[in-house]
Amino acid sequence: MSRLRPAEPVAPRRRAAERDAGGRARRRVPGFGARATRVGGGLAGAVACVAVTGCAGLLPGPTMDPQGRSLDDIRLRQMVSAGLADSALAWLRAEPNRLPGDDVLDRLYFGVLTHQAGLYAESSLWLQAAHELAEDRYTKSISRSALSLLVNDRVLPYEPGETERMLIHYYNAKNHMALGDLDGAAVEARRLSMLLDRYDEESEPTHLRAGFRAFASAVFAAAGDRNDADVAARKARAQGVGAWWEPAPDAHPVADDVHFLGVPIDGDDAPGAPARGTGRVVVVVERGRIAQMVEESAFLTLDDDRRHHLRRGRHRRTWASLSLAGELAPETTGDAAFQDALEAARAEAEREAEEEAEEEAKQAAAAGDGRDIGGDDRGNEGATAPRRPTLDPSPERIGSPEIRRAGRDRRRARDDGDDDYDENPYIMRIAWATYRRAPVRTQAAPRLVVGEADAAAARLALDLSAGVIADDLAHRGWVIARAIARAGTKLAITRAIENEAGEKNEAVGRILGAVANAGAVLLERADTRSWALVPDRLEVLRIDLPAGDHPLAVRLGTGEVLDLGVVRVTDRATRILFQAAGVAARPPTVAGR
């Protein structure tokens, strides 16, 4: 497949975070604060600039509605549903700032819009380019930019989730079938199968993956590749897709199901093929629009120990970020990788705290001020070790008794002249993205209509919104941890500004600290980018019919009837038809031999 050559090119916007000075992709740096300790005064001034001058507008995000949804995405979804994909394309090409602003995601948007507009060859180019970039980011594990610790995650390269990666191949297979290129569709089905194999090696198979294996099997069958069709069908059944099929009692026998149950097949019929004298029709109905990303946020007040760890030391910032993220995202308890990272960060934080305590003790002893970490054991009777923050996490919640006690401790430390604790309060705002789906009304399952009567057909429902929500939850803890680490970096910068100015004028220092705090709050934005133009659900209907011409339609639970036209069924062959519900009338896409 050739490189992307759009008819009306949009200037590519490579992120500086993706490549070093030599143009080479950089690997991800583990940890959340790897470069935070090197932040200089210039960046501190930048944070203050944001609050004072309003230069946060230099990093604009999408315009949101009161529910936190992107207004641009809402408009695009409405245009697609109205059958105005060509108008949506013209709008984006005239105003490219309406795009999400990432090389991969921009291509995904153009890929689905050109597909909806019937520009299948161009759509295939966009999707192929998106696939190559997404694969490059996956295999090279692009470094998470240190800039994200100071701004927000929207500056990071977009990495499509598992469900979105599967949909790239789904749409590209549709493009090839619409162009009559069944071999090209089989290539996409093969890429999809390889992707599913990779995911199954990394985690437990899911029902959605099994459903896409069943779709790949249908594509292989339509292309005449019986061996790959049978392999994909067997894997789908082994992963539970058999429980998803809902055959009616009077459904025509399906050869691959008979073979799977161990029932002998008459003659030399190959497994996975329709019975002799019949052909198979697979209808894929796309319904609704996928759940949209919205921003959620929380304002936290932390005790002095947590604030101390977030301000001092890379390893302690990592530990504090992960532990607090674990409290805010309970699903991390089942994430073995997250728990391993938390334990490792705790060990490193303890070592870092011990090293700092030893260094302070040496400096105190050298200064001769009588303070020694050894206390009475070293002969300094009456001397006490400096108060060190504990690493034991406590349930940090706004207004909790622990927070109130921490506030009293802070005030006592201030009255005792302990400079290690902050006098001014610091508001920590963290923001993360979450999917919100439209309310789903209970509806009867769609029915396949052959001629004038409803026909019994097997049914497979794929919930794409549930898939992207699961993808998001799998990474929620890491996203929140990064947001907390970012807030800790901003806290360190804020206090540095306050202390530096406070040496000359305490009141000015407090004012500048409050201003920098406000700027840090304004800069915090959730990364709400997602591929918002794909369906909410796929309904897959399958039936075997006698060879010949059959008028087909789909009757939805709402009463809407989708006319599929007259479909020619060929002996022992498979045909696939695609139709979108709730979209202005378009002829269905039909593919197969």
Number of helices: 16
Spatial strand order of the main sheet: 6-7-1-10-11
Helix coverage percent: 40-55%
Number of strands: 11
Q: What's the shape?
A: elongated
Q: What average pLDDT do the residues reach?
A: 74
Question: Could you give a short account of the major beta sheet?
Answer: 5 strands, mixed
Compressed to H and E, one letter per element, the order equals HHHHHHHHHHEEHHHHEEEEHHEEEEE
Poorly predicted sequence stretches spanning 5 or more consecutive residues: 1-59, 142-148, 246-271, 370-389, 391-407, 417-422
Tell me the Rg in angstroms.
29 Å
Task: Please render the helix and strand layout as text.
Elements: H1 41-53, H2 71-81, H3 85-94, H4 103-116, H5 120-140, H6 162-178, H7 182-202, H8 207-222, H9 226-238, H10 255-260, E1 278-287, E2 292-300, H11 304-311, H12 314-328, H13 336-367, H14 401-415, E3 428-436, E4 447-450, E5 453-455, E6 458-463, H15 464-502, H16 506-523, E7 537-546, E8 548-555, E9 561-569, E10 574-580, E11 589-592
Parallel strand pairs: 1-10
Antiparallel strand pairs: 1-7, 2-3, 4-5, 4-8, 6-7, 8-9, 10-11
Helix pairs in contact: 1-15, 1-16, 3-4, 4-5, 5-6, 6-7, 6-8, 7-8, 8-9, 11-12, 11-15, 12-13, 12-15, 15-16
